[in-house]
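Lecture 7, part 2: worked example. A protein chain together with norvaline.
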Amino acid sequence: MQARYLRSAAERVREQPTEESLWQVGSGGWPPDKQQPRDVQHLHKKGGTAGTDVSRPFDWQPHCVATSRRQHDHKGRLPMEQTAKTDFAPSTPQLQPLPSVTQNSSGPATDRTSLLGGPTMPALPTFSVSTRMRGRHLLTDTDLTPEEVAEVIDTASRLKRLHKNGQPHHYLTGKSIGMIFQMPSTRTRVSLEAGMAQLGGQAIFLGVNDLQTSRGETIADTAQILSRYVDGVVARVYDHNTLVEMGENASIPVMNGLSNLCHPLQAWADLLTLTERFGDLKGLKIAYLGDGNNMVSSLMLSGAAMGVSVTAATPAEYAPSEQVMQYAQWIGNSTGAHIGATTDAHAAVKDADVVYTDVHVSMGQENAAHRAVSLAPYKVTPEIMESAGKQALFMHCLPMHRDEEVASEVVDSPASIIYDQAENRLHMHKALLVHTLC
Ligand code: CP
Ligand code: NVA
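Predicted complex, written out as structure tokens:
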């Protein structure tokens, strides 16, 4: 991974093949077929883990609850070679210098003034990305092809490096996003808000009581209205159908900030963390212990796409979604990833590169007392980490409940990379924003 950080100052997009990879399988639509913004789907490649030709065997997502606004039949997508790479911030800065706020713009800053703009505004580094994800909804893990996941990981690494070097990268000046959160959030919300600010744009937080949806305005109308004001929407919702409905009615990209179905932004950020740690994703093994929830669904789908094997150890009653597993296995058949489930925690962690867990009671779930008893044997303990082996790292999407799903000794051990993992939400979100909004 060191090599990744030794790249030259001019940030360049990674090379893209002109044809879709052969190992992308399935019909040319899967979830994105129903979900791309009304005004862009005829302009851009739909994307998704699915490719062309082969019928998709399963339909694991909730069905759309609103279809009347769809205007395109999705048949007119452009070939890959037309999704051109562009430099959106050439080395000659395109931004006009900010007006100075000092009394005397040519004078030095004083105790009472900050000299902004003018000659102190450094040029933005050259940074190029492909336009293939522009305007696309990101509602599930399969809305990005494996090739696109690799590309956003690369972009996130480059943006991270610029950020760490203190280099300006406000490539989204003038852009804004709405952030609809039906549930609390620390990482997703704060990293998106900070990320938009670092990119020169603005994020508008919209909590449950902030929107007129609390007084009966429909999701469809809300999506259409927001499309007139902002450039993208991130939504954290209890019911994934809400996201689907937003997607069908918005003409701007909608991103899933977590739903009952999946948590793709977390999984993609985790793949960035794994890339940093291991260099190559293909062949890695994740053992997930605990509840078969939205998080393990995303790990299975995103992991399978990138050749990462995922084995979940859960009680039978809290096993991962069978449909998600079948879909992930189907993807994994093409990438070499093994996707499986067991009730044996020690068997699952054997030879794992990563032991991963999540809370035993997710937001919106009930039966907390019963879950506590049923899931207790799947706690990540020092013994579990020993079964995994010395090489194993510990990950958790957070927030965690110390000594419930994971022992504090594990959290605080050298094997734990949870804070790096949390930090990478910021860099991955910035990459996704750049790719979809630029
Ligand atoms: N992992 C995650 O999504 O954290 P938040 O709930 O704090 O956003
Ligand atoms: N499974 C957890 C993830 C939190 C980031 C939940 O849905 O609450």
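Residues 418-437 form the longest helix (20 residues). Residues 258, 263, 293-295, 358-359, 362-363, 397 surround norvaline (ligand 2) (CB under 6 Å). Keep this in mind for problem set question 3.
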